[in-house]
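COURSE: Structural Biology Practicum
ASSIGNMENT: Worksheet 4, Part C
STUDENT ID: 0417
INSTRUCTIONS: Below are two proteins. For each, the amino acid sequence is given first, followed by its structure token string. Answer the questions at the end about the second protein only.

PROTEIN I
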Amino acid sequence: LDGPDYQVQAIKAGDVLIADRVLLKNISWNDTQDALRPEQTETQDTQKALNPGKMRLPTCEEYDLLATTAKEDNDTMHWSYMYSWCQDEDQDSMLKRAVRGYLSARYWNGDNATNRNVHVGFRPAFEVLHPDPLTPDGTIITVGTLYMDGKPVRVSKDPTKDGTVPDYIPGASLEMREALD
């Protein structure tokens, strides 16, 4: 396995780190909730600056802070032609959830929580256990390697709907582990 191809990069935005790109496509909002549900216990290895058990979807407020921090630059936060699921409900329908990006960094739309397609993906947020006040917003940090059902997931170099973003395997569990070297 080639380490850099499996290292997830995240951007510091306030008290969270948010992946700089979608890591999986063809994943519904419901899938993200089910895949992240298994509680991960903390071990000595995970008690560093980041707690992988806190991987989740960003809120729209956090996503907007990411857009501000990245100056809405697609080369930094990779929003073009790919929506990212957020935690928030669509104001018009309780069956829909917020998706962000695609047409612009701040574009907001709603998608059915059960929908899987190549346009919408999983961009995780990570809560920082002990944020370093000296680390400025916008700092890019390697947070680890994403594993789907125990296998490392390659990070796409072309994170768009027609790019090389891996597909989610329905029913698979997701976890973040220490970055592969």
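PROTEIN II
(use this one for the questions)
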Amino acid sequence: MRQIGILYQSHLEQATRLAEALDERAGLLGKNVWRRSSWDEDLADQDVSETELIVSVGGDGTLLRVTRVAAPWGIPILGVNAGRLGFLTEIEGSEALTVLPEIFEGRGWMEERTMLLVQRDGVPHYAMNEAVVSRGAPARVIHVSVRVNGEILTEFRGDGLIVATATGSTGYNLSAGGPVLPPEAPYMIVKPVSSHPVSEAPLLIDPSSHLHITVRTDHGAVLSIDGQDDYEIADGDEITVRRSPYQARFLH
């Protein structure tokens, strides 16, 4: 590896200090290093395209954000926990300073995980955990229609719908009563939330399938990507979800 990037949670002092230490350590090991906040929306394509490893410093939220940066370029990610929740990260805190030389010597192994491609108005969004369609006003339900490859799968009124990956199966999907899948499973989970008629059984969708979600509402709705990026949905809007052509690559 000649060039590595460090993306860190700049809102956490601990993550900022650790990112600085990793930058210095990698430089002493002869690597070209760039370091940016994970909230930076202006990453240069040249910096990213020439990068062979991105170190994510923060919690799970930071790792999800970094994944959406790295996946289109096929760049491996090393997750370092410096946040509150490190369920998805590989290494705890300052342990990374010791592990980094081992990683550079090729002692790790790669795991690839499915992501989602979510489109609204033709604009692509990539999700590591899930895409959620939910009501836009308290105590008001929305009408959701779901088609798979053009055929009606389900229609219901309720709080919303979760479409999750295997990685996201242990997140919102699990708390809503959905199944837990092995991390490498390619399936999409479709999980209604507080639906009526009462039929909240989750469904596993083949990874080659395309989902078309139509929302009917007179008070607005929201599309949420990984619980981080939210977009308003109007009555009649259609959202498509399918397996992303990109995969997240985690270095262990």
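ANSWER KEY EXCERPT:
Q1: Residues 117 and 244 are 4 Å apart (CA to CA).
Q2: DSSP finds five helices and 17 strands in the chain.
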